[in-house]
Amino acid sequence: MSCEDLLSAIEQAEAGPSSGDIEGAPMIDNWFLVWRDGDAIRADGDVSSHPEVSEPWVTTSPVLSFQYDFDLETGWLRTMSRWYRLGRLRAVPVASPDPQAKRREALDAAQDLLRRHREAWRDQIESGGRPVATDLPESSTARIDGPTEPLGPVTGLFI
């Protein structure tokens, strides 16, 4: 993926999908967001109607943005490589008197982190750098052309 392609994907993610983007998009159900040490945020879940993946479980390329409606259990997700439709969020056990509120809080935190990643990647591209997390240069789904400077390692699970 070129820096121009990444900038375009970031702009698309920030604008949100058109109906055409979502109509034919693969579906991820039973999904959750993960942030592994030194990596960008990715989504894991059961995928269907994916044009390149035949396995039922998928870990996406880095996530750029998403929107999820807890009441309707539906939404969308934009990765570096494509749009996805979101189904039901995975019911990860949460030690809280109000697990749903904790899940909402976790997804809000993920949204904030994704916004900061997009801003950092955009700034790195505009300054002539290469906007990647530690593992992205070797990734076949998210190769970026240019010099590398990782954003830094943190580990977490967004439910």
UniProtKB/TrEMBL annotation:
Region (Disordered): 124-148
Domain of life where this protein originates: Bacteria
InterPro entries to which the protein is assigned, alphabetical: DUF6634 (IPR046574)
One Pfam family it belongs to: DUF6634
The protein's name: Uncharacterized protein
Organism: Falsirhodobacter algicola
